[in-house]
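QA checklist item 7 of 12: single-chain prediction sanity check.
[x] sequence parsed
[x] length recorded as 668
[x] structure emitted
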Amino acid sequence: MYTDVNDSIALKDLITVASPLIKTLVDTYVTPKLNSFNERRKLNKEIYFVPTELHFKEYYHRTYKKLSVINTLVFNNSQRFLKDIYLPLTLVAKNKDNIKYKVDSFPELLSDEYQNILITDTAGMGKSTLMKKIFIDSIDKNLGIPIIIELRRLNKDKKLVDEILEQLNSLNKDFDSKFLLELLTEGGFIIILDGYDEISLNDRDVVTNDIQSFISKASENRYFITSRPEKALSSFGNFQEFYIEPLNKKDAFELLRKYDNQGSTSSLLIKKLQEKDMNNIEEFLTNPLLVSLLFTAFEHKQAIPFKKYLFYRQVYDANFESHDLTKGDSYTHNKYSKLEIDDFHRVLRHLGYNCLKIQKIEFNKDEILKLISESKTFCAGLNFKESDFLQDIIRTVPIFAQDGNYYRWAHKSLQEYFSAQFIYLDSKDKQNIILRKLVENHSIEKFINVFDLYYDMDYKTFRNVIEYDLLKEYENFQQKNYIQNYTGVNESSIIKRRELSFLVDSYAFKASNPDKENPIDGKKLSEMLKNFEKENGVEYSKFSGIILHPPIKNTFCVCYQNNKNSILSLLVRKKNSIVKEINFRQHTHNKEIDIQFPFNNEYELMKIDDDVNISYNSKENFEKVNIFLQKSRVLGVIIDEKESLKKLKIIEQSIEIENQNDFLLNGI
């Protein structure tokens, strides 16, 4: 049975249970480490401002309490204990076969084997919840000295060690960051870095270098980093990357039951979801956040929305119109701002878009009030106090959460929903320009969830702008392709080569490292990539990876992919006909392909292109190279030439008709 966290007795019980666990951890790990540290350096902790047991105890009591309580969009203003609604998630290794790990407690075996773990996945898959679970379990099971950091707090002026110092230093007994860093370099810590994708774009390079420098200096610790997929993460080459396995239907139903303790709402909803006409909702049941939104939407209207953005709208409506059950069903929270539901939504749309532009989801009070003021100015005709609106989004319509002196969106995807709504409803003649700017942004993957939501809101504009530009780019690529009329080679093979080569530059290289577990020499590989990028002006941000189990012995492929591949991945999820998935990993370890690439030296990149005069593009080798490229891909999605060119004509005809016949003015 779940416990209402708003019950002060429940909170008191939590602290009572946690206190001896925290004492045990500090006595086991922290005290011996501090004593040894101080003795070796002959330091007087009072004079030299050295960290003490008190700093760690206070930090663990505060953080354990904070992380044990979870705010979700399901419960409006109320909260639940994490243990009551946590559903064990399964981590799956990228680029390694059959490595799965169900995280029902601290993943000791995984952490022991890899030490540095990177968890990447899309919005709402439960990355932050997983990190909370890992932190709490490391205390409950006395496994080490955990420290959890929200990476959005870092910037060019605030280093990782500064944020750790701030977290540990809430007591009046300040200590020196130099001694903290020395302590951390000795090892024994479990350092959790949550939300790499939430670092401001303006500070990204500086913060990334700082994190890498910190990890290099303090390499004897265990690390966990979470993020949505980002190209910049490829610079963390010493981390084993995992993603979270999508929920199956059984898991989704179990999660729904947790939200109301197997009550009537979850029972009714599950019964509804088992009906035959609900097959198209199955995609939403794979994502924990969407499962929670589904519960909230259904609880509010007893209806299931079939588009993702409608989930968010119904969640917003439910929060805005929420009743205080302690005062009877008829009591609705009055809004401090006195705004009606649609006007309030209008302000949030601008606020969401403004936050998207600056790529921030967390602010101090002055910053958030300034942003609200800008939204108020944009929304002509609305009159309210900025401070009242802030009170509303924290209390009566809890779209934001307050964490000490910081104010942040309750979930990043909420901000993205309101951003997409702004582009759709408020940007008017700038709509196409905005969409194209987002697509051309070198960090396009940061906007994929916005595109995902927008696709369902306004598919016609998405098609006429984003799909059209992509298809036009492919048409130009196809027409300039030298292998278009390569006699003696099957036409389907030529088409396949174009599909495999679009938006990806592939380079082969030879390596014969005798270590079977690590077939590539990491140092030589790093030197090769750095030299190549420097000489050719290739952007490292476009580097997408290397497959370590090549289809040709000792021959590997480096892929540099255009950022627009993110759009292809989105279109696959949307079941759009212009893209298709390919089985790019099957039999990778088996049957080798017999191709002799004309390498001069080891660790020297050779571009695989469409020059028919190169030996690897001979008629005998052509299809073999296709197989090599297919098996070497990092992403298993490509454009579908036939469907794409057909769709391009349809879109062009549609746009031409719209331009010629302005039906909006005809007859007026």
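[x] summary fact logged: The chain has four domains: 8-244, 249-306, 341-457, 484-641.
[ ] second reviewer sign-off
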